[in-house]
Protein: Sucrose synthase
Amino acid sequence: MSSQLIEAVLNSSERTNLRQFASQLRTSEKQYLLRNEILTVFNDYCQTHDISEQFIRQSHLGKLVSCIQEIIVDKESLCLVIRPRIAHEEAYRLLEDMTIVPMSVSDLLDLRDRLVNRYHPNEGDVFEIDMDPFYDYSPAIRDSKNIGKGVAYLNRYLSSKLFQDPRQWQEELFDFLRLHRYNGYQLLINERIQTQRQLSDRVKQALTFVSDRPKDEPYPDFRFDLQALGFEAGWGNTADRVRETLEMLDQLIDSPDHQVLEAFVSRIPMIFRVVLVSPHGWFGQEGVLGRPDTGGQVVYILDQVKSLEQQLRDELILAGLDSLAVHPKVIVLTRLIPNADGTLCHQRLEKIYGTTDSWILRVPFRDINPTITENWISRFEIWPYLETFAIDAERELRAEFGHVPDLIIGNYSDGNLVAFLLARRMKVTQCNIAHALEKSKYLFSNLYWQDIEHQYHFSLQFTADLIAMNAASFIISSTYQEIVGTPDSIGQYESYKSFTMPDLYHVVSGIELFSPKFNVVPPGVNESIYFPYYNKDERLEGDRQRLEELLFTLEDPAQVYGHLEDTSKPPLFSMARLDRIKNLTGLAQAYGQSKDLQERCNLILVAGKLRTEDSTDHEEISEIEKLYQIIHEYDLHGKVRWLGVRLAKTDSGEIYRIIGDRRGVFVQPALFEAFGLTILEAMVSGLPTFATRFGGPLEIIQDKTNGFYINPTLPEEVAQIVITFFDQCQQDANYWQKISQAAIERVYSTYTWKIHTTRLLSLAKIYGFWNYVSHENREDMMRYIESLFYLLYKPRAQALLEQHRQR
Ligand code: UDP
Ligand code: LCN
Structure:
């Protein structure tokens, strides 16, 4: 507890140090100090008072300062926001006489409002959003280390509760098994089994029956015998597989155990039709990546679909259902863009390559103002169209599937909101994938929301996030820190725990971080496109030559800016959308400022477009201008190539490998990166990778073992880290290879789509199962969430729609 730490400071000689530090803070120009600034003031304080390093590290005060996230200087007192450990926040007011008073969340939010002159107590309180009471009924994880392992926890907790009453448990299990159908065809058990007692007897009879048969006898050969006993298809594809599944059931009836339960539920054929919702951006298979709003999410979903369909098919085969013409179908639901700019985004249906029955289904936004709705719409402006999109999409999904789907997965804030609306209407399990929560990307995006609302509309986005993340049956995150951050920095979901939207609402509890709904399931890379540079047999010589020319020598002002004087230098490569947060301009700046770095390598960027007049995205336009300005300011001519091209996936794979052939490196300089698929791609290709320490890369890379961390806000340090690497390569001929090989191994061991989809499906089944058997009553929460949607979100969305109508 931080109160104990504060007490320890106050009751010791360090009290004087705290007093001095506090007065230094009061005289600092800033009223609102964040972590880095607090540490800087503290270091200054220590220096001016000749205080040793050891004190900074070992004193109570040093420890206290290291966990202060925020200090607000409020007249004579200081408000300290302390994060003593992951996912815990406490606030205290330190008065001038050195007394310390705890602050409630509401007090803290009021103070923050006051700081930005948005506190009007005479006009009454602001609306408070509090999700906490709705999580009372559900179990909460106790140890923050277990956050993100929700399903294991849920299983253990709920099973132990359920198994206490064997009779009730057997009834629940029996009812659950009777539920399953495919296109009206009964699966698992039929009406010949009428009670749970009968089920228990018949399982034993069926077990004797299948155990006597050859292990690999196909299910269709004994299907009718099992049917006579009351068992339909779905138990297995061979006599042995049926025996295994029935044995699990037998054990669950007589002596249940949570591990057997998890294995058993994962085998139940209950998912055949899946919808992945991803409305914004350009969702297509060609010519879309690198456009505004169109990056990793598209790559993630397309790879996920292929793997998901395969996994569903494998599971249905193992369940013995393929002989009954049961097959999986996956639909990616996105928006149809009539003016598709040479892409297929105007096509209603598009088959997904490499799949049997997976499709992109595009549903148009209703035509409000054709100059807007017929074109690409920025993800920040998309909010007014989503409710009607969900209504229209429901009709189309029902038609395509001939049924309701079994699982709806939302992607990003807009897709998650649509997933919520669809899941609510169709009573289906809802899974959320955030990809990136905008709130933590833009500093103070909530506190100053009103100033940037015209551009970003965060009041809609953050409300949509709160709605969807609370409504979801379960949430998948790519990293642990996406949920609750690191000891030093708060997580993306954690930033929704409490915050103020001055004049609009206060969130006193926006999400339960200890809820078992959170599960870390990282993505993978497409291993047939991205593989190590040394796998020469899998590479095409023609592609290599064409792309080498594009990267290093081609002179075509439509595609490339800049030429290289010395192509023998290793390339420092980066590829990203030209979004401000991606900070490619920051990388160019770091390169521009360092002559030493320029001596050692060339800079090659694959990024968006070359001309501002080709873009309608305000961030892209300003980044293009900035990049030209940096190249001119530092006179980088002859050292930099900027490719404004849209690469086919296979080409981007080969490009990483060409960089590898030349012992180059990959740098990812984002100011914040939620996960970072380019990092996986570069690493699996064998590129030593230098990636931002802000966000997911911190979890992907292990510093100096299989890559390097950089702090993109310190350009000189970034340059120095890369220079040191190249120098080390000079001294040790194997160094490049060592890091390269470790990077490849890191990806193969931890980030594969097979691991991802096996886990995803198992989660979907288990959450579906628990929602059914625990009769968990979430209706109170869902009603509250609906009121946020109708009373808060919808009027604001309509106001934005009116603005669009006028444009
Ligand atoms: N990408 C691309 N061309 C570009 C920029 C990006 O093909 O000009 C691809 C890149 O290979 C990666 C994805 O887009 O697969 C970007 O994903 P990441 O997670 O790194 O970032 P995001 O764009 O989603 O923020
Ligand atoms: C969005 C992002 O910003 C990236 O960090 C992720 O890698 C991508 O989505 C895929 O989840």
Notes: The chain has a mean pLDDT of 95. DSSP finds 31 helices and 25 strands in the chain.
